[in-house]
Amino acid sequence: MMDNKPRMAITMRPWLILSLVTVLALLVNLPIFLVVFNSFQSTDDILAARSLIPRNFSLVNYLYLGERTRFWTFLGNSVIVAICSTMLGMVAAVLAGYALSRFQGPLLGAYAKSLFAIQMFPIIMALIPLFVLFRSLDLINSPYAICVIYALINLPFATSMARSYFDTIPRELEEAAWIDGASDIGAFMRVVLPLSGPGLAAITIFSFLFSYNEYLIANVFLRKDDTLTLPVGIQMFMAQYSNDWGSLMAAATLTVLPTLMLFLLAQKFITPGGLSGSIKG
């Protein structure tokens, strides 16, 4: 009988940990659940409700978004801008990070130090000069302008992340590829990049989320309704004396879907231990 108690405690411990983690996850994500639930009821029902779970579910808010607003245009603009800026920044960050990781020199050292200095520079101080520059280039109300700005803002941090991850990849793998006849570019493309999945996935998620959620720069450079991104376009649901809370909840629910899909796609690349045993034997 004395031996059964420790065994029961060991058996129950995983269930207790799982229950605790589940409760904490529900509490942390409670605001998200409330937004989703409230998106299925009108604004009047939201203001009059006294319970967390709505009683009358309705699709009126989603129908309103599709029929009487330009929500899908805003969503498309945000997705296009986020994808383009992420791809542009990723190419530059990966190449710069690899160069900083594998080569040394005074010029590269100065560039690496300048990355940290640029990160401390507040972007709001550069908005007016950038606006004047892009206006002279006729790029105001153009997604190309904010794509370039977003890529440049993400570049210092993305380059630092790429360099840190490339430092963890053994150089012996590239040397083995060179012995097999691969060129420098071939070793980078066939050996280093495939092993950089977790690092590249993390950089992609960070860059995409920043570009997808950014408001200030988009509000300055985009003024026409057909060019607005989601953070700027959603503010139209807020008036001076009243807010359309039902439409806001529905828009917020649909806004989460692209980022959720990105996390699901990138999840398989974020796997630990991909380099373990790669140079053993």
UniProtKB/TrEMBL annotation:
This is Carbohydrate ABC transporter permease. The chain crosses the membrane at residues 15-37, 71-98, 110-131, 143-166, 187-212, 245-266. It is found in: Cell membrane. The keyword Thylakoid does not apply. It is a multi-pass membrane protein. Signal peptide: none annotated. Its main location: membrane. Belongs to the binding-protein-dependent transport system permease family. CDD domains: TM_PBP2. Keywords: Cell membrane, Membrane, Transmembrane, Transmembrane helix, Transport. InterPro entries: BP-dep_ABC_trans_perm, MetI-like, MetI-like_sf. It comes from the Bacteria. Residues 75-266 form the ABC transmembrane type-1 domain.
